[in-house]
Design brief:
Strand content: 35-45%
Number of domains: 2
Radius of gyration: 21 Å
Number of helices: 0
Distance between the termini: 24 Å
Shape: elongated
Largest sheet: 5 strands, mixed
Order of helices and strands: EEEEEEEEEEEEEEEEEE
CATH topology of the largest domain: Immunoglobulin-like
CATH architecture of the largest domain: Sandwich
Number of strands: 18
């Protein structure tokens, strides 16, 4: 028996602070982030709201990165976006347009727009360029920064009995993405999943594992992103 699945990665952060000179500073905690199949009923294709903007909670003088004043009033401004990727406005009524602002507010904040790949191919990245602005003028605008996403479809698997007391499980996922293969003896909400290997899907998006069937009445498999 077998089961394919997808599990979202832990929250990836975009940290917001200020420099000693009074400019808003942004640090993006990822290069290209995979977006899962949309979990939202009215949003198609690939989407997540896990990627958030967080005001920093401690100073890092060595990095010239300091906590912002609660007197500042922040907005996220969309400067440009590549075809195929969108970010929803702060009302949830539609996509942001270039030059439009998204409410962030005063520090401390933890703000999560919905990022949405509406058309695109797995393994290709789609980027948006943004700035953060203080409407109260305490700080100057951040340097423009880019966030990039790629579609991540659930890993599809196929199982083959080798006829020698082993089975080979073949996976097909997103090229170049790392996946963790997990096993369980029963499916469902109460299943206990155990990680057995971490594999890179490579240029073709495929990889496989071979396991003994000895001592296993049933075995369930899935591949999740770490």
């Amino acid at each position: 028996m077998l089961l394919a699945g997808f599990a979202g990665r832990a929250e990836d952060e975009i940290m917001v602070g200020r420099t000693a000179a009074g400019q808003i500073k942004v640090e993006v905690g990822f290069d290209i982030l995979g977006l899962p199949v949309s979990p939202f009923p009215n949003i198609s294709r690939y989407a997540t709201s896990e990627v958030g903007f967080h005001s920093i909670v401690s100073d890092d003088a060595a990095d010239d990165f300091f906590q912002p004043s609660p007197a500042a009033d922040f907005r996220l401004i969309l400067q440009s976006k590549e075809a195929g990727v969108e970010v929803w406005n702060d009302h949830g009524s539609g996509y942001m347009t270039n030059g439009e602002s998204f409410y962030v507010g005063q520090a401390p904040f933890d703000t999560h727009p919905i990022w949405n790949i509406v058309s695109g191919l797995a393994g290709q990245s789609y980027s948006l360029t943004l700035v953060i602005r203080d409407l109260n003028g305490i700080y100057t605008d951040s340097t423009p920064f880019t966030v990039s996403f790629t579609p991540v479809a659930p890993a599809v698997l196929n199982i083959r009995d080798n006829g020698d007391g082993t089975v080979t499980v073949e996976f097909h996922g997103t090229p170049q993405l790392d996946y963790v293969v997990q096993i369980a003896s029963t499916p469902g909400p109460g299943a206990l999943w155990t990680s057995v290997s971490t594999n890179n899907a490579g240029d073709t998006g495929t990889w496989s594992i071979t396991e003994s069937t000895a001592g296993h009445t049933a075995r369930f498999y899935r591949a999740v992103t770490p």
